[in-house]
Every structure is written in structure tokens, then in C-alpha cells.
Amino acid sequence: MVEIHNLTKTYGRFRALNNLNLHIDRGDVFGFVGPNGAGKTTTMRIICGLLQADWGEVYIDGIDALNHNDQIKRKVGYVPDFFGVYDNFKVMEYMEFYGSMYDLDAKTVHSTSLGLLDLVNLSDKKDDYVDGLSRGMKQRLCVARALIHNPQLLVLDEPASGLDPRARFELKEVMKNLGAMGKTIIISSHILPELGEMCNVIGVMEKGNLIANGKVDEITRTSRHSNPLRIHIADKKETAIQILKQTPLVQKISIQDDSVIIAFDGDDAEMSQLLSTLIGAGVKVSSFHREEGNLETLFMEITGGAK
Ligand SMILES: Nc1ncnc2c1ncn2[C@@H]1O[C@H](COP(=O)(O)OP(=O)(O)O)[C@@H](O)[C@H]1O
Ligand SMILES: [Mg+2]
């Protein structure tokens, strides 16, 4: 759905994007992660035809985005990172105002708007003033607005930033519905866990370069190897520690009350072997598991702690 080749953008002498290559499949919910200043907004604005690139190629659904701006604007919906001020606009008027920018008749805009407000859970606010809405509601309204012309690709720039947990949860629900509708979605954040549950693919940007890219489940699976193993011991802790010290796959041992936490470099079979050795030696093991795959730790590893 989105193909980017060698995309480069400079601001004066500063290179914000450095030969970026990226591929996003139709129906993907792509999480675009990276610290502030990484180049996410720049990339997204170029994809949406709102900013000129220096060189490179961008194809959206096969269309050359850098040279066919008008066609791209019909295919893409954009939710910017900043929500403007809309004095005296009511929610429904706001939707109809944006709808009037596309060649859609008033009736279609009206019925589409009602459907979209329902989708983002704002039906009961349709006669309220936009400026009186909470931040989370404004954000959802912005999503509804970006969908008015039924775009195939929706690009959201830091939609969860500044939202409270409740508003974030509601946004997440909206994203799930959009994913289920088969839309291709690009959603950025400088905080990875914000995206983990919403996306099936992530790309990590840093200083204008894509430094990691892949399916969320594959990335968490490979990182599981580096997650520590936590062993709860009801009795014979000393015996357990002796065995662990003699096991080559055990890299590091730390003790917390009744638990022993180890860095274990083995796969599932080797894990189960270790468990039988402990039990065989009479150690009373009450639980034995890998700590959960944590995207944030992974992100810190990839970006070297930059945030
Ligand atoms: N209009 C601009 N003029 C000069 N520098 C800019 C401009 N817009 C962005 N930049 C710089 O380009 C880099 C990437 O910015 P941006 O794409 O906004 O990153 P992100 O969205 O990941 O925070 C930053 O260092 C930023 O300061
Ligand atoms: Mg940005």
C-alpha cells in the first residue's frame, strides 16, 4: 500500500530524512516510533502530500505520491499532531465543512458524518461546540474528519500524546474498529508502549533513519530470549543457586526474597531441561517463567536509550 524508496528531506543544511526505505502492506496498522526529532512528522507529511521531498520515491496504492498530489489527497486521511481552534463551529458543522472540500453532495456528507461520529463515539456531541470538547474527544473528531472521503490510508501523527488513560483507551478502541474495517493505518508515537497493542507492524526511526522494522509479534518473540527467567522457590534455594551457577546457559543470577531471577540464554527445550534438573535435585519450584516480552525495553535497546 505504501512504498518508500530513498526518501530524503533536508531543512537548510539539516538532513531530517536520510534515504528512507519503507514498505507497508494493505491492511497493516503500522506503528511509527522514534524519539522527538527523529523525522516521523516529516515522513508523514510527505506521504500525505503536504510537504515536498528533496528526492526519493513514494508510491501509495501504486500512485506516484510526489507527483500526483491531488490523487493522493483523495486516498489519504491525515490527522495532524496539532488540533486547530474552531471558534463557533459545532461538531456536525465541522464535519460538513471538511466534507464540502471533497466533491461529495451534502446528503452524502451528512449521512457519512453521522456514521463516522458514531464510529468514534461522539454521536451525542454532534450539536456541541468543537472548542468545548475534551482533548480526547477533539482527537477522535479529528479521526472522523480525516475519514470523511473514505480514504484507504489513514495517517495519524502522535494521536495519543497528551491524552489521559481513559481517552487513550477510547482512541485505541477506535483504532481497533478502523483496523477491522481493513484500513491501512500509520500511527506515530515517541512512546512505544502506546502503540504496542494497536499495531501489527512497527518501524523505529532515529535521526532520519529507520533502525528497526518488523511485525510486532516477531520482534517480541526474538526479544523473549533476552527476557529474564523468574523462578519462585518454596524450599532448597541454596541447592537451586548452586545448580544455576553450574549451568552454562545461565548468564546472571540475582536473588529477590523467594525468587531467583536469571538471564538465561536458552530456548524453550533448554528451559524445560533446567526445570527438570532443579526438581530432580529436590528443589521445590513453585513457579518458573519468562518475564513478559516488553516492547519498551526492546525499544530502549534498539535506540540505545534515546527517548
Ligand atoms: N520546518 C522545519 N525547519 C527546520 N527544521 C525542521 C522543520 N521541521 C522539522 N525540522 C527538524 O527536522 C527534524 C525532524 O523533525 P520531525 O519530522 O518533526 O520529527 P518527529 O516528528 O519525529 O519529532 C527535527 O530535528 C526538526 O527540528
Ligand atoms: Mg512529530
Q: Could you explain the architecture of this structure?
A:
The protein folds into two domains: 2-222, Rossmann fold, CATH 3.40.50; 228-290, YebC, transcriptional regulation domain (Alpha-Beta Plaits, 2-Layer Sandwich). 36% of the residues lie in helices and 29% in strands. The chain is built from eleven helices and 14 strands. Strands 6-7-8-3-9-10 form a six-stranded mixed sheet, with helices on both faces. Strand 12 (250-256) and strand 13 form a beta hairpin. It starts with a strand and ends in a 5-residue tail after the last helix. Adenosine-5'-diphosphate (ADP) binds at residues 11, 14, 16, 34, 36-42.
Q: Quote the CATH topology of the largest domain.
A: Rossmann fold
First-last Cα distance: 29 Å
Number of domains: 2
Shape: elongated
Figure out the total of helices. 11
CATH architecture descriptor text of the largest domain: 3-Layer(aba) Sandwich
Number of E strands: 14
- Look at the structure and give the CATH class of the largest domain: Alpha Beta
Query: Helix coverage percent of residues?
Result: 25-40%
Hetero groups: adenosine-5'-diphosphate, magnesium ion
* Biggest sheet architecture: 6 strands, mixed
Task: Report the sheet-strand fraction.
Answer: 25-35%
Mean pLDDT score, rounded? 87
Show unreliable segments.
none
Topology:
Elements: E1 2-11, E2 14-24, E3 29-33, H1 40-47, E4 55-60, E5 63-64, H2 69-75, E6 76-79, H3 91-99, H4 106-119, H5 135-146, E7 153-156, H6 165-180, E8 184-189, H7 193-196, E9 201-206, E10 209-215, H8 216-224, E11 229-235, H9 237-246, E12 250-256, E13 259-264, H10 268-280, E14 284-290, H11 295-302
Parallel strand pairs: 3-8, 3-9, 6-7, 7-8
Antiparallel strand pairs: 1-2, 1-4, 4-5, 9-10, 11-13, 11-14, 12-13
Helix pairs in contact: 3-4, 3-5, 5-6
Adenosine-5'-diphosphate (ADP) is lined by residues 11, 14, 16, 34, 36-42.
